[in-house]
Write a structure and sequence with these properties.
Length: 162
Amino acid sequence: MGGVDLLDSLIALYRTKIRSKKWYHRVVFHMFDFAVVEVWLLYRRDSRDCGIPPKDVNSLAKFKADVAGCLCMEKKTLKRRGRPSQHIEEEQPEKCPKTPVEPRPSTLVRFDQTGHWPVWVERKGRCKYPGCSGIVKVQCSKCVTYLCFSVERNCFLNFHKQ
Ligand SMILES: [Zn+2]
Ligand SMILES: [Zn+2]
């Protein structure tokens, strides 16, 4: 199979299912699908070069889900610009929840080192840093995750370090 055929079949595997009457919407979504597949191929090649065992390398589906998760989480830190389009309907109910109860950040979001701020919250919750069971009132503003942030314990820092 040639390179272009392979790329086409990979794009077709998990194509973004958004219907739009505007041709340029379809072009943008195709470009997005194309970019994700290209980046995944680079990621897979780099993983192989770094000696990461194939079982630990994310599949295209998982990789694309992580990218989508990142983009959903970005909404919390980026202000929307312009009017939302009224011509786009999603075929499947895959929308991000507007107020997730307790979302787990994907590893891409967790370690992106962008816009993670400790914030005080009303309700207490259990620290999500592995091995810690502290009850705290501090969350990461982006991950929406309870984390210790005190002189004794800085799970906040450890949680975001790879
Ligand atoms: Zn965070
Ligand atoms: Zn903790």
